[in-house]
Amino acid sequence: MVLKNSILVLSSICLLSTGCGETEKPEESTKPVSNEPISLEDARAVYTLNCASCHGPDGTLKASNAKDLSISSLDEKAVEQMIRKGNDKGMMPYEDMLSTPEIKGLVKFVQNLRK
Question: Taking the alpha carbons of 47, 53, 57, 62 in that order, is the dihedral positive or negative?
């Protein structure tokens, strides 16, 4: 009987100790997410990783039917839409791969490639 009660007490303590704190969230997760663009330096890294293979480091490569970004006349909104949704000419959409700040940073970076 004593052993049975001891096991119940220990089980209760274990359940209580493991359950405490699991509902607490780290402070970082409660901070609002910024939609400000990343820096041009960070955008260059995102561009190099995701865009340069087709557009080239300076935007002029035109590989795989990619457009020459140095002569693009698209406005900021259209560039953002192109990055987010891609197009029917082979550019894939990046809206599920990149965050809004990364996309907005890329828009600024791409506009800086213009001659």
Answer: negative
Query: Per residue in 2-32, pLDDT tens?
Result: 555 555 555 555 555 555 555 555 555 565 6
The answer to whether the pTM exceeds 0.85 is: no
HSE value, Cβ hemisphere, 13 Å, CA-based, for 12: 6
CATH class of 40-112: mainly alpha
Distances, alpha carbon 36 to alpha carbons 43, 45, 52, 91, 99, in Å: 12, 17, 23, 24, 11
Q: How far is CA 93 from the centre of its chain?
A: 13
Separation of first and last alpha carbons in the chain: 86
Domain residues of the chain, as ranges? 40-112
Torsion, Cα 104 107 112 115, to 10 degrees, reads -170
Please compute, for residue 57, the number of CA atoms within 13 A of its CA located in the half-sphere on the CB side: 0
The b-or-e profile of 82-105 (16+ CB within 10 A means b, else e) is bbeeeeeeebeebeeebebbbbbb
